[in-house]
Hints:
Helix content: over 70%
Radius of gyration: 24 Å
Oligomer: single chain
Largest sheet: 3 strands, mixed
CATH architecture of the largest domain: Up-down Bundle
CATH topology of the largest domain: Alpha-lytic protease prodomain-like
Number of helices: 8
CATH superfamily of the largest domain: Cation efflux protein transmembrane domain
Number of domains: 2
Number of strands: 3
Shape: elongated
Strand content: 5-15%
Strand order of the largest sheet: 1-2-3
Structural class: mainly alpha
Amino acid sequence: MQTSNRLKLSAGLASSVLALVLVGIKLWALSETGALSIGASLADSALDLMMSLASLAAIAYAMRPADDDHAFGHSSAEDLTALGQALFILVSAGVIGAAAVGRLVTGQTDVIQDTQRGILAMLASIVLTAGLVAWQRFVARKTQSKVVEADSLHYVGDLIPALGAIVSLVAAGQFQIYSIDSIVALGAALFMALAAVRIFMKAWNALMDGVADPAIVEDIRARILAWPGVYGCHDLKTRTAGSVIFVNVHIELDGAQSLADAHAIGAELRRALLKAHPNVDIIMHQDPV
C-alpha cells in the first residue's frame, strides 16, 4: 500500500510541475505567434494546472490513515475528485466542440505570425506531455487510481489539440488553410467527452459501493479455494473506494482443529492475498466446514 501511495503521489507532483512548465511555454508561443489555436491550448494547460493541483490534494488526503470518524480510511476522496474532473472535462469538451463548429460554420480565420517558433514550442509541449501520460498510465495500472486516470485524460486531451495546433500552423504558414485546426479540435472534443463518461461511470460506481473488477474477485476466490486447509468459502463481497478494494469473506475450515491453528491458516492466507493484491483490505471470518 505504501508503494502504491508513493506512485500516486509522484504522478500528482509530476502532473502539477509539468502543467506549470507548459503554461510558461505556451505563453511564450502565444506572444510570438498570436495563434488562437495556441491560445486555446494555453487556456487548457492553465485549467489542467488547477485540476492537477486538485488531484494532488485529493491523493494526499486519501493517503491519510483511518481514524475514529473514517474507520475505512479516506480513499473515497479520489472518487469524488475523479467525478468532478469528469464533469469538468465534459464541459470543456462541449465548449471546445461548440467553438470548433462555430468556426467551421462562419469560416473564421486567424492571422498567424511566427509559425516556426510556434511549432517548436508545441513540439516541446507534446514531448513533455507524452512522457507524463506514459508515467500516469503506468501508475494508474499499478494502483487502480481513478483520480490519476482522470488526470491523465486531461493530458491525453492536450496531445490532440497540440498536434492540431502544429498542423494548423503548418497549414496556415505554408498553404493559408485555416479550417484544419477546427476539425482536429472537434475530434479531440468527442474523444474527451467519451473518455470522461467512462471515468464518470467508474467513479460513480465506486461511490455507490459497486463491486470490484470481476477478474480480481475471481482471482481472490481461486486463491482462497486453493489454500491448504481451506475447504471452501462463501459470502465473498467486495466494494471499491478510490484505489482500495474492500473484501469481506467467510472461509470454511476444519471445525475440529484448535483456534490457534484456524487463526494461523487465516492469517497466512490473508498475507498471501495482500501480497497478490496490495490495494486490497480484507476482513476474513473463519467458519467450521
